[in-house]
Amino acid sequence: MDQSEKFPTPAQLAAPAALPAQEALGWITRLVAALELMPGVAVCSIDRAGVVRFCNQACARLCGVTPQQAVGRRLDELLSRGEREAEHAALLEAVWQTGRHGPAGDWIVRAADGREHWVCSTKLPIFQGELGQVFCMDVDITARKHAERTLTLAAQVFENSRDAILLTDSQRRIISVNRAYGGITGFDACEVLGRPLTVSRAGVEDETFLREVWNQIEVLDHWQGETCSRRRDGEVFPAWLSLTAIRDGQGQVSNYMAILSDITERKRSEEHTRHLAEHDFLTDLPNRVLLLDRLSLALSAARRKGSMLAILFLDLDRFKPVNDTLGHQVGDALLREVAARLLKCVRKVDTVSRQGGDEFVVILADIGGIDHAAHVAEAVRQAIGQPYRIGEHELHISASIGVSIFPSDGDDIDTLIQNADVAMYHAKEGGRDGFRFFSAAMNQRIVERATFENGLRRALDEQQFELVFEPELDVRSGVLVGAEALVRWRHPELGLLAPERFLDVAEEAGLMVPIGNWVMREACRHARAWHDEGHQVGVAVNLSPAQFQQRDLLEQVQAALDEAGLEARFLELELTEAILMQGGAGVADTLRGLRQLGVRLSLDDFGTGWSRLGQLKDYPIDKLKIAQAFLAGGFDPTVIRTIIAMARSMDMTVIAEGVETAEQLEFLRGQGCDQYQGYHAVAAARASGQASVLH
Ligand SMILES: Nc1nc2c(ncn2[C@@H]2O[C@H](COP(=O)(O)OP(=O)(O)OP(=O)(O)O)[C@@H](O)[C@H]2O)c(=O)[nH]1
């Protein structure tokens, strides 16, 4: 390019001596023509009086007029600068005074039509020999200013947000966190920058959940939901997380933004509100709303499992007089104490609720049978019946309880509650302080059962139990070597009852231990009496699993021996396979303890259920009793032969139970069986006169 064609610098254009006037004018003309083409730059020139001499399209647009309308008017009329008008005038004056171009600066200008723009302005003095005009050049920077403002605002929002905000790169690595993040989690930014963004539920990362979250973000660019987050000190807190994918101009994810709100307080307050809505204010028990909800769940579960459930409808008896005589406050305290006692009578899976007033409803979920419901109803009745100390008052109150059973008394919530209510009224009519089942037949059974159980409880005190002794004879010599003690209950109305009639009830009523201990003491006493009469005969008693588990079993056995003055080797404890099958060190220790006392141990009913024969040798068992089923129940020579051989190999005594015939005895003798028991033994003992020993 020719040197003369080179565009002059602004300094050359502005300095009077730099270019001859004619040349300067030429360049200015070309410059103006060029500026006309630049839509973004508003250019006008003004003379010393501030009147516009030249105005390009962009400048006219900025002023809201046409170039023709602009020329001849004062610039400060066309574009006002508000409060900075004087500042602008001073700047312009300085240009005129010094002949130097003014500094670039940002201004807000308002056009005649009221529109406002941000402009970046410079002033260029133009010399045509002498200083003739000032070119004003304004670049519209409104959009940039807005962008800057938006950015500043965004940064302020980011920094001042009360929610934690995290930004990640496209690989989900954290690149920025705001101040609230530190406040909420306790982590410093430097501890998390560069780390991957994690999303977890219930404090643990769940792969399936994570996949679902990121899949949704991939499709919708957004996911939000409840999660759990962990603070620096390890505390897990509930959080609301909002995740957004940020895409670049090409539509590729460039960043992710996570907004994390700590919702601990909200949750707490929601929980509190829900608790208030679902609980009784006085007792804090579930109210009717929650009861119906729980009942509906319990019913669904019972239908699914085919199990039973019971509803106990309880109303206090003559509660009104408590209020009337001692005041509502005492009444309230009594209701609270009743609630506490009710809770103690049920399991965790059950629900105790207060319906209002002095009415309570209990759901017994998944009961094994109506006996269970009857037991709880009785336990509740007794618990409520205990005296209350409220302030200086000692109070007594009772309750009437109605029981309905799913499925027999109804298939839906309303029917079951209504029927329990009806049963409760029957209990009131029946004299209060009691419980009634809705169904008459059930009620009859329960009454009978309860009477039987109460009788059994009294039987011990009233000495209604008796022992009978079944002789154990030596197979070879026919000599009486021992006797098994068997318990009978002489029921005042039903006569002499065999154990099968009452042991199940005793077990449910928790009476096995006292009855078993009575049998042991009584058997020892009898054996001692035989010895005193010159008959060295041992006695065997059955040990129930409940007895075996009692903590002071060894003391009980020793006490029975001491009381009777019986040598330990004459007492034999018959264990069931069920006891040994509980296994574990506890069983072996107890057996060893018993052995150390000197008593003998036998395994009853052998051959019917032992599944771990191998373990038998680990236990100090002296004697195997071949189950009656293999003799009286259907003679099975193979099994008998095997058991005898096994007992021999383990150096144990073997006795056959239920021997009924001379042929069976002959067979046992042939197999080397040591002892026998059963009708045939009883007959032989009688015939030989030995039976009289066992009185
Ligand atoms: N203290 C107290 N009393 C209440 C509350 N809600 C209801 N009551 C009273 O509880 C009593 C309920 O009495 P009832 O069950 O109708 O009668 P009752 O005296 O218990 O007689 P029976 O049920 O027939 O044995 C009424 O006196 C009610 O005013 C409460 O929140 N606090």
UniProtKB/TrEMBL annotation:
Gene3D superfamilies named among the record's database cross-references: 3.30.70.270, EAL domain (3.20.20.450), PAS domain (3.30.450.20)
All residue ranges annotated as the EAL domain in the record: 449-695
Protein name per the record: EAL domain-containing protein
PROSITE patterns noted in UniProt: EAL (PS50883), GGDEF (PS50887), PAC (PS50113), PAS (PS50112)
Domain GGDEF: 307-440
Residue ranges annotated for the PAC domain, each copy included: 223-275
Location of the PAS domain: 46-99, 150-212
Native organism: [Empedobacter] haloabium
One Pfam short name: PAS_4
